[in-house]
Sequence to fold (223 residues):
Amino acid sequence: MNGVQQIFEASVYIALGLLCLSFVLTVVRVIRGPTLPDRVLALDMLVAVAIGFIAVIGIKTGYSLYVDIAIALGLVGFLATVAFARFILERGQASANTKDAANNATEGNQ
Amino acid sequence: MESFVTLLVAAMMIIGSAFSVIAALGLIRLPDVYTRMHAASKAGTLGSGVMLIALGIYSGDVGTLTRSLAGLIFFLLTAPISAHLLAKASYAVGYRMSDRTVVDEMSSGQGDN
Fold:
C-alpha cells in the first residue's frame, strides 16, 4: 500500500509538470501568433489545460467541489471561443499574406 | 481493490497530461490554423476529459462521478462546435491555408457555404 501511495504522489507531480509544459508551449503559440485565429485557438487550448490543472489539483487535495469549477470554466471557454469566432467573422477580410494580417492585427489593436 | 483504483487514477492522470502535451506540441509544430485546430480540439479535449474522469473515480462518490461525466459530455459536445465555428469564420474571412495543403475542397463553392 505504501508503494502504491508513493507511485500515486509521484504521478501527481509528473502530471502537474507535463501540464506546466503544455501550458508554456500554448502560451508560446499565443505570443507568436501569427494570426488572430491562431491566438483564439491557443486561448481555447489554454482553457482545456486549465481544466486539466483543476482536475489534478482536485485529486491532490481531495476536494471534489473542483469538478463544478471545471464545468463552469469549460462553459466560459466555449462561450469565449464562439464570441471570438463571431468577432473574426465580423472584423472582415484578412490581408492576402498572413504575415501582413498579423501585423495589421497588432497595429489595429494599438 | 483500493490500490487498484489508486493506480488507475495515477495512470489516467499521466495519460491525460501526456495528451495535453501532445496537443500543445501540435499547436507549436503544425503549419497553419486549420491543422492546429486538429491538435487543440481533439487531443486537448481528450486530455482534460480523461483527467476529469480520474477526479470522478478518485472521489469515490457517485454524485461527483456523474458530474465529471456530465462535464466530459459537455466538453465533447462543445469542442467540435467551437472549432467548426472558428474554422468557418477564419476561412470565410480569408486566412490562407499552408503551402503544403494538398486540397481545398471549399475553394470552388466559396459563395454558397
The mean pLDDT of chain B is 87.
